[in-house]
Amino acid sequence: MTKLFSGKDSIELWEGITKIKWTNSQSVIFKQVVCDAIHALAKKCQELENQLHAQPDGIPEEVQKIKKISNIEKIQEIVCNHFNIDIDTLKSKSRNQSVVYPRSLAIYLCRKLTNETLKSISKVFNRSLPTIQYQSEKVKSKIKYDNKMRQEIEFLSEKIREGENL
């Protein structure tokens, strides 16, 4: 079996088909057709995989419309002002819900609205990469059913947009 992609969604192709006995000319043509078909299939699978990963699934429409910005500090400032906490508290190791919730929203907004890497976001928030991924994914899944959180994301996104247009 030849795997075109790794992981649970890999596509396996049966190599035995090329072992059929043909005359030399038929074999060459057949192998070329099979190779072309495999190449076309791999290309189409890659396109579909890219489309699947590009879909915003569950991201509020307001967030989708905002152009990517590259100012994590501005997002932190807007979130801190909204929740009436200071930036040092947002970056602190506190596990108090009054800090964790705004921090999670800020991390989510940084992931969705900036072109920054996970590594740079983790440095600014003084968090590990897995923590940044976890908090962002947690918010992403929760906004699908939590109207309050979704409204706060939309409100903060609008504030960020206003800040970018100044």
Question: SSE order in H/E notation?
Answer: EEHHHHHHHH
CATH architecture of the largest domain: Orthogonal Bundle
Low-confidence segments, ≥5 residues, pLDDT <50?
1-19
Please state the overall shape, judged from the principal axes of the Cα atoms: elongated
Reported by name, the CATH topology of the largest domain is Chromosomal Replication Initiator Protein Dnaa, Chain: A
The number of domains is 2
Distance between the termini: 57 Å
Helix content: 55-70%
- Count the beta strands: 2
CA gyration radius, whole angstroms: 24 Å
In words, what does this structure look like?
- With 166 residues, the chain is an all-alpha fold.
- 66% of the residues lie in helices and 2% in strands.
- The chain has 2 domains: 2-54, no CATH class; 61-164, Chromosomal Replication Initiator Protein Dnaa, Chain: A (Orthogonal Bundle).
- α3 packs antiparallel against α5 (97-113), α5 (97-113) packs across α7 and α6 (118-125) packs across α7.
- The protein is elongated and about 75 Å long.
- Mean pLDDT is 77; it is low at 1-19.
How do the helices and strands line up, and which of them pair or pack?
Layout: E1 2-3, E2 12-13, H1 24-54, H2 61-65, H3 72-83, H4 87-91, H5 97-113, H6 118-125, H7 129-142, H8 147-164
Antiparallel strand pairs: 1-2
Helix pairs in contact: 3-5, 3-8, 5-7, 6-7
Short description:
The chain is mainly alpha-helical. It has 8 helices and 2 strands. The chain has 2 domains: 2-54, no CATH class; 61-164, Orthogonal Bundle (Chromosomal Replication Initiator Protein Dnaa, Chain: A), CATH 1.10.1750.10.
